[in-house]
Amino acid sequence: MDLLPAILIGYAVGSLPIGYLVAQTARGVDLRRVGSGNVGAANVYRTGGLRMGIAVMLADAAKGAGAVLLAGAESGPAAVAAGVAAVVGHIYPVWLGFKGGKGVATASGAFGVLAPWPTAIAAAAFGLTVARTRFVSLGSIVATVLLPVLEWSMPGMRSVDVGTTIVAALILFRHRGNVARLWSRTERALGT
């Protein structure tokens, strides 16, 4: 697949506001107006419970994986572009005025297809960090920083290395408020 169609497909798939739709349909809740105001899985968990949060997390990951697979996972740069575009679509969905989630689950799905081992290690680091600290944001930041470091250190396609770096920069930018709250010790932990 050519680059432009891959980017358009990736963005279209990634921009589907699943968390928003699930919370709105199941609970009548507009995620943009409650909790963190974010339409991702963590805010769904806080407003709709564990099962709903996990379902949205898996669906968001499926968006990333689906975008890569639709572009043809073996197609190299086009598949990477589709994965990056899916994350951009999740973060900046046209349907919600370009105000979406933070992209972590969507990135995990995209790079789970493109770079399975680095993604699995980053996911394990996410899980361990959240289990130890109860801060989803800190787990997300740790995994986000770790993924490109691991990817660049392993043999593979340069386009995947670059893709993980671009996505990490986007996700870290979206977490800047969380970083400030973690630093000031005002970040909200899971279960509080």
Globular, elongated, flat, extended or rod-shaped: what is the shape?
globular
> Helical region count?
10
Report the sheet-strand fraction. Answer: under 5%
Helix content: over 70%
Report, as a whole number of angstroms, the end-to-end distance: 46 Å
Element string (H = helix, E = strand): HHHHHHHHHH
Task: Describe the structure in your own words.
The protein contains ten helices and no strands. The chain has 192 residues and is an all-alpha fold. The protein is globular and about 45 Å long. Helix content is 72%, strand content 0%.
Notable characteristics:
192 residues; mainly alpha
Helix and strand layout, with pairings?
Elements: H1 3-14, H2 18-27, H3 41-48, H4 50-71, H5 77-91, H6 104-114, H7 116-133, H8 136-153, H9 158-174, H10 176-183
Helix pairs in contact: 1-4, 1-5, 2-3, 2-4, 3-4, 4-5, 4-6, 5-6, 5-9, 6-7, 6-9, 7-8, 8-9
